[in-house]
Amino acid sequence: MTIDGDLYGPAAALYDQLHVGPASPLLVRFFADLTPEGGRALEFGPGTGRVTLAVAERAASVHCLEPSPSMRTVLLTKLAALPRLRERVTVLDGAAPEFRLDSVFDYVYLAAVLEHIPPPARRPFFAAVAAHLAPDGVLAMDMVDNEPVPDEPEREVRSVRQGECRYSRSTAVWPLGPDLAGVRHVYRTYLGEELVETETVERLHHFHRPPDVHADLAAVGLAPVPGPPAGPLADKGLLIARFPGAAPTPGFAQREEK
Ligand SMILES: C[S@@+](CC[C@H](N)C(=O)[O-])C[C@H]1O[C@@H](n2cnc3c(N)ncnc32)[C@H](O)[C@@H]1O
Hints:
Helix content is 24%, strand content 33%. It is an alpha/beta fold. The protein folds into two domains: 12-146 and 208-257, Vaccinia Virus protein VP39 (Rossmann fold, 3-Layer(aba) Sandwich), CATH 3.40.50; 152-206, S-adenosyl-L-methionine-dependent methyltransferases (Single Sheet), CATH 2.20.130. The strands form two sheets. Strands 3-2-1-4-5-11-10 form a seven-stranded mixed beta sheet, with helices on both faces. The longest helix has 14 residues, at 119-132. The chain starts with 14 loop residues before the first helix and ends with a helix. The structure holds S-adenosylmethionine. S-adenosylmethionine (SAM) is lined by residues 8, 44-47, 50-51, 65-68, 71, 95-96, 111-113, 116-117. S-adenosylmethionine binds at residues 8, 44-47, 50-51, 65-68, 71, 95-96, 111-113, 116-117. It comes from Actinomadura barringtoniae.
């Protein structure tokens, strides 16, 4: 079966098992450490909430804009089991680049989401973010890098067992241009040895190059904070941006001291 519409429909229930990789805790820590204690946070594309829940531990509030109904369902189900976060996390149907909220935020972030935003939509998106960002606020994202567009045949990336079923995700990536790839995820369900269901999702992956991103940030009055982290997160394309003259970045200095 091939899915139209909710691209994360087939992935949502097992997203944490089939899509989240071994570097995930470090990436979550990167985003969580930037959270201003007691501040107001805005997240684009929270998915199943792997970063949201860590940010919510420090923020006074987290507003989440998530276009996938399936991902919202998983996130809300997780939140239902965490009553102490009930007041703090707001989950809305929304998406970049266009959004309007009647609030200003101390921290705006997106993790593993930029691939869904076409480069021409990036500057309007940053303009909307800048209009919702407090003067000392922080914008953080990943997926800003110079990695070449991959060309990888389908292979099984991850699999997980649940009862007598085994669920797997296989992925293929192919170039469509200098900053664009096609991605196909095939989700298979096996009962014992028998293949009982196959769901396929095809979508685009947009690449965001540092000089273009920096130019779009500058156009809306934001500037990248120098000194991206080295080590295991070096290939994640992490970027922090702020208004020039803003107070020192929470968490960033802290991380450099580690
Ligand atoms: C790869 S998942 C990442 C989920 C989560 N941020 C994480 O790091 O685990 C991408 C998420 O972005 C959402 N998304 C897709 N297009 C979006 C857009 N234009 N604006 C906001 N979120 C979007 C998807 O529905 C999905 O939940």
